[in-house]
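lol ok so funny story. i was supposed to be doing the assay writeup but got distracted and ended up predicting the structure for this chain instead. priorities right. anyway since i did it might as well share w the group, maybe its usefull for someone
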Amino acid sequence: MSDISHLLSQPGNFAGLPSQHSDYKSSRVTVLPVPYDGTTEWHSGTRNGPRAIIEASYYLEWYDIELGKELHSMGIHTLPSIEPVMDSPEAMAERVYSAAKSLLDENKFIVMLGGEHSISYGSIKACTQKFADFSVLQLDAHTDLRDQYLGTKFGHGCVMRRALELCPVTQVGIRSMSLEEQEFINSRHLSPFIVDDNSLNLSHSDIIDSLSKNVYITIDLDVLDPSIMAAVGTPEPGGLGWNDVLSLLRAVAEKRKIVGFDLVELCPDQGPASCSFTAAKLTYKLIGYSFFVGM
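and the output, tada:
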């Protein structure tokens, strides 16, 4: 029988890409699924997020109207999922770090799909060792700046506190925090970009000015308004719309070099299937911005 592999979409690959667009050696992008939700406290199920995003991505159009390109042209390889470590959140962070460091050593662009937000620390840690003049852009409803939460320093509520110990962090979309976090922000003279009373007072220029040359982006999907993203573990009223997020991400890509990103906290059982597709499309759009816009 003749080889028809070039005609077939590949189940398990992001966007269902066939082998000629998803071979590991030739692909510049690696999608790393991390199905972990070991420190979730309210709605569990973010461990199912990576699979839901990848399955929804099969229905993406490869051609992007805005950029006028088929965005998969640089090659997008989907790796097997990282096996969760249940011993401790810190051990899980180290496992993610080891995987991310290995990929960065091979000059791969990492797209990490979670899972809960705690997984971001490992990838951020690896990036701080790879890139100079580096900072993080966090899109999130919550600051995640507790020093310790539910008995661990490496849970989802502490992830950006740990990241700040490694590099500068710019927080956008914030609309909920604890008193402890507010006091920490005051003591460190931090200036998160807060969404207050459903008013989107987000200056692209101010956000970009706060970022270093090389930027890692971490997107907690609860940054989006629950009317379009109900499927998260800890939804917050208000938030950014689809176009708000895309316009910001494109503006960042035009002025800074995006060196990797993650998308976390999809809890597919908590919302309609459209949420998984929205997450998949946001992933694909940000891959496109990272490679075809600006720097």
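The mean pLDDT is 91. The first strand starts at residue 29 and ends at 34.
back to the writeup now i swear
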